Amino acid sequence: MTTLYGRAHPATTLTDALTRADFTDAVALLSAPHAHRVARVQQGHCHTYDDGPDFLEAVFDARVFDGQRELRWLCTVGSQGQAVLLGEDPALLPAGFGDALPDLYAEDTLPSSYLLWGTPQPATAAAGTWTALRTPRIGTLHVPVPVPPQGCRLRLVAREYVCVEPRHGNAHVAEERLLRIEPTEPAEPGTDASGEDAVRSVTHAADGAEDADTGNDPSAERESDG
Questions:
Q1: In this structure, what DSSP letter does residue 19 have?
Q2: Residues 112/196, Cβ–Cβ less than 8 Å
Q3: Which residues are paired to 223 by β-bridges?
Q4: pLDDT score of 26 more than 90
Q5: Are 111 and 221 contacting, i.e. CB atoms less than 8 angstroms apart?
Q6: Three-state DSSP class for 205?
Q7: What is the spatial distance between Cα 110 and Cα 160, in angstroms, rounded to a whole number?
Q8: Dist CA 13 CA 139 (whole Å)
Q9: pLDDT at residue 216, as a whole number
Q10: Per-residue pLDDT tens for 73-93?
Q11: Element (H or E) spanning 15, and its range?
Q12: Which of 165, 158, 129, 168 is nearest to 145 (CA)?
């Protein structure tokens, strides 16, 4: 059994939530009305590749992760929003972040991943620390990770928490926590995904997300632009 712990702050700015979480080095997925960006977070400061710190003022939804914790922030009124910090080690969730959430007891955990759209290429600046994902239909998305080996793609890795409903005993995925972005070799056409890529299919465009029809096949791969 795995326990997922959490703390929540009902009304805070994204900047304050990042300060309270105090990530040493993390990745952030930031959604604004006009754009979607992937950013690097270090010591509470968030930096995108090209928009600078001013981009944060327009963000309405954020997910920040470093492998051990995930911060979620959703704007509700003005610049204020609800922030939640999740992790499997309660010692890594600062008491000053907010109130403790009920513990989530998972019977099992499952690996999950999203294949990122776009061909990885070196970014024009900050060489070695950012990768440019390019695709004709979407454009370019800069990701704060090194360029993967030739022939590889990038994927977003997550962990699913499987709980059992106490009355009827039905198992279900109660939560998902983002972990990291890493290189992966794309599956050959016509082959079934397995292991960490045995996941549901999801497409995610830069100007919004929309789910793809996957039927009842839990092994369909999912692809995202971040």
A1: H
A2: yes
A3: 115
A4: yes
A5: no
A6: strand
A7: 5
A8: 30
A9: 38
A10: 999 998 999 999 999 999 999
A11: helix 14-21
A12: 129
Share of the chain above pLDDT 90, in %: 62
For residue 115, give both structure tokens. Answer: 């294949």
Ranges 21-25, 129-133, 189-193: which has the least confidence: 189-193
Locate the DSSP E strands across the chain.
2-12, 26-32, 35-42, 45-47, 61-65, 69-77, 80-87, 99-100, 104-106, 108-116, 119-122, 131-135, 139-143, 153-164, 171-184, 202-205, 208-211, 223-224
For residue 9, which of 80, 69, 82 has the smallest C-alpha distance?
A: 82
Closest among 219, 6, 172 to 102, alpha carbons compared: 6
How is residue 91 written in tokens?
A: 């010692």
Is 213 in contact with 202 (CB distance < 8 Å)? no
Q: Per-residue pLDDT for 145 more than 70?
A: yes
pLDDT (tens digit, 9 = 90+) per residue, 147-187? 999 999 999 999 999 999 888 889 999 999 999 999 998 76
Cα 147 to Cα 9, 64, 103, 124, 150, distances in angstroms: 36, 21, 37, 12, 9
3-state SS of 75-128? EEECCEEEEEEEECCHHHCCHHHCEECCCEEECEEEEEEEEECCEEEECCCCCC
Nearest Cα residue to 75 out of 134, 119, 16, 146: 16
